Amino acid sequence: MMMMMMGLVSSRVVFLFVVSIFVIWAQVVDLAEGGAVRNYISWEDLQVNEQRLAVKSSHNQVRVITVNQNGGGHSKTVQGAVNMVPDNNRQRVKIFIFPGIYREKVRVPVTKPYVSFIGKRNRTASPIITWNSKSSDKGPNGTALGTYASATVGVDSDYFCATGITFENSVIASAGGKGMQGVALRVSSPKAMFYRVRIKGTQDTLLDSTGNHYFLKCRIIGKVDFICGSAKSLYEKCRLQSIAENYGAIAAHHRDSPTDDTGFSFVSCSIRGSGSVYLGRAWGNYSRIIYSKCNMDGIINPQGWSDWNHSHRKKTAVFAEYQCKGRGADRRHRVPWSKSFSYPEASPFLYKSFIDGDQWLRL
Asked: Is 204 a catalytic residue?
């Protein structure tokens, strides 16, 4: 009898031990699959279940903060929703923005990573975040804001992503105007992705400042240097729309050293609109801009590229085109210091590996 009881106890101990090991293993697997910090951006991060307004994981919910200027959400302003994200957050927080025109400046600080802006669409509208600061405006301390601080939306948050939103700066600049830079979106995130967003302005529309960024199927609108900055970014299947009345430029990349691992790569984009615009201008001695497999309308200045009146930059800037088509892709009158890349030369700039996307994108 005693032996039988000891056998039963031993069996129970073994059973409990096995169960404990299984539970621990399950927790480890769960943490690896979503319970812990996910240092990447996925399609899931750009979606909200509108029926439940929450997406459950095994341990907790991915938090969704709703913004509705008419009431009924967690906040009436986008900045109010951003402020609700805990500092040093370690889980994805989705800010779900209802249609409307949100007249405000928004800042997403470095202390609030893993934030998504997701626009709710209806049949006629999507959310627009708009403001009208320009670089020559006076700031709180009485000095000019400068280009950086003119941004309607400024993002420093790591692993930030956005979809279904219009970012707008409503300042109307003309080519040659002084102090009229008005940024709609500034991105200084170490890593960020934008999918099907519209970025609208006139001069310096998108300040793609620093970091590695991916823009997919976005529409970017402006007149002069409307994509500018020092980042390392891939623009894939985007529409670049010039609204210049006479002359302008699409991109101005800043790079001061040949060892700076930065640049703008435009792949399978379409270029449309008005005016006569340069593909790029050399903002910095080693500016690097490559257009690959893009469809260019007849609005491209035949010379294609500008050294920004610094003739020595002709020797150091990397301005190149690869297998582009359309009336604007005719290279017969391009500046002789620009390049027509072969596939081996273009290859490093064609894929998400250019921005180390295999490390932080799961799409």
From this structure: yes
